[in-house]
Amino acid sequence: MQAKPRPAATPEQALSAMDHLIATHLVGQHEIAQQVGMNVTDLTCFAYVMEAGENLLTAGDLAARVHVTTGAVTGILNRLERAGYITRRPDPTDRRRIRVAARPGAVARVLEVYEPYYARLTELFADYSPAEIAVLNDWFTRASTLAATYLEEHCRPD
């Protein structure tokens, strides 16, 4: 596919567009969390558990990714377990730790809500050439790393 002409944009315009996307995404996450009976933090944790698949995360892994204390993540896991979203399994190498697994039915419920949105995003990606998608992927990956590093440096949980 040949790249389509794109309107010129300044870094400031791109930052503004990114801010609008993030704001809309935050509102959407809140709405989706309500649809599946969770709060946004619990949904975010569950998304990390889903993403991990068979490489089960520990409670400490989740606490670090969501920037909450280990005590707070215990409460999150308690809610997710009571609601039927996750199970806890002993770590095979360290019985003091637990690993978190998503329940297949819960994954299906959450994906049912997200799949129409992801289908629209996939259609949007079809408007871009493979080279442009590579740039988008590179930018999202690097921006995510930058954001995580910034959070580590400036927003540590107490």
UniProtKB/TrEMBL annotation:
Coiled coil: none annotated. InterPro entries: HTH_MarR-typ (IPR000835), MarR/SlyA-like (IPR039422), WH-like_DNA-bd_sf (IPR036388), WH_DNA-bd_sf (IPR036390). Signal peptide: none annotated. Residues 1-145 form the HTH marR-type domain. This is MarR family transcriptional regulator. It comes from Streptomyces purpurascens.
